[in-house]
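Tutorial handout. Part one gives the primary structure; part two gives the three-dimensional structure as tokens.
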Amino acid sequence: MNDAAILVVPQALLRREKQILWLSIGLILPAMLLQLGVQPLFLEEPRRIMIALEMAENGNLWAPTEMGDFYYKKPPVFNWILLASSWLCGGYSEFAFRLPTVLSTILLTLLIFLLGRRYVGERFGAYTALLFLTGGGILMYFSMLAEIDLFYTLVTFAGFATFFHYYQTRQYWPAFLLTYALGAIGTLTKGPPSVLFLGLTIFAWLAWKRDLKRLFSIAHLSGGVLYLGLLGGYLYIYAQYNALSNYFPGLWGQSSEMTILERSFGQLLRHLVNFPLDIIKDLLPGGLLLAFCIRRDFWKLARQNDLIVFALLTFAVNIPAYWISPGARLRYIYMLYPLLLYVFVYFQQMEDAKKWMQLWLRTTVGVVIGALTLAPLAINFVPDLEFISWRLPLSLGFTTAMGVIFYFYWRKPALTIPLLILSMFVCRILFDLTVLPQRAQDSGALREKQLAADILKLCGEAPLYMYGEGRISFTSTVYIGLMRGQALRRKRDIEPGVCYLAEANLLQGRSDYETLLKFEYNGLPHELVRFK
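Part two.
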């Protein structure tokens, strides 16, 4: 039940506050699309894309392969998304590959807002959604990459939101059918983690509501049948191409790699300490609001709103699996971030919040906005940015914009959080205009992309394969496929006149080849050779 009396101001946004938030919203698309395709593919982006390319080349959308071998670590849904985006954008490009992540992030932000507005209020929903989007790891990193995590976060959080909303409105059929359908999509995107997210969340909430009998209802059982039907349908089709006895061990292996079973006890201890601290750091600037949760009556006040209880409970039952897994990464739990922010913002808006908490927030935000006001001037002294001929007016323009924000911060304490949000979007646009072009000028990914171009130039029209079980960087591998129009495959036997990429030690004792290029990967010597 909502209790408006405990909130610091009515949940309707004030005029000036709304203007600043609308300005921030207006900057979202420019901030996230500007220079989106300029930096070369790197990290896990190339792997996702090379698998999608092979699926299209094979004419097989059901059984993913990597360099010609069956790939088991991720089911195919995100590959379908990448191919669909490329088709809609008119061809393969860095922009097309990254666009699904941008759209997923924006839809996720909208969903966070709608759920928050429905069950607490407009200000609460807006603050939570925009603080999620401006989290450092998301705004400045993962929202601009063609990786699986933010799409998977959207699907998983949509499952949380669907189940909570329809359960609250006592519409049990959509509560279970839609939630299990989203769970199936999640499972076909990332595999076993969705089973835990789905099962633990439903069980925990029904247990809290003392409604476990609902597990045996026709609506719930129908949801389970739908989930199994969607997965079973995919597995039936997959089995036409590859044995399921190969598929399941490979799929489970990806999840087990991060657990304590595969790590040392020392790694576990470090992870237990660092993981919660890293979460708060990754949530910044929204993580600043954690201070407002430090109060004796925390649980008493949290229980006044079902959404806050659901957020706490869902976080509590899902986080242990990652907290005790030393290989877990923060991006694996992005779907839990909105739940934490719901709690943080809820308590920040309490009318009896301690003065030290308000002072902490006000002072820290002032330091952040002040630093961001001066930061653009520094780009004039960064050697790597000398190629930007207009960096002086660029820096002065952004310093002026941030100076205006700082002025309103100084004069209008009630606008502290909206101005912080606006500052983060301004900062992202400056990042787009400086750091991303720099990465396109000089970066490890650019050098790996150039290596791909050199390899293809030296090969000419000759066929090209990866020899044996070897590997070069994913970036070079995917660009070989994109530039040549044909994915790089493995070949384990030798053919005359064919070019191979191989580790140098695999060629020892042979003299029936011509070396075209020598290079290193992971500190090991590699060669491009043509066999005679």
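Part three, for discussion. The two ends are 78 Å apart (CA to CA). Confidence is low (pLDDT under 50) at residues 1-10.
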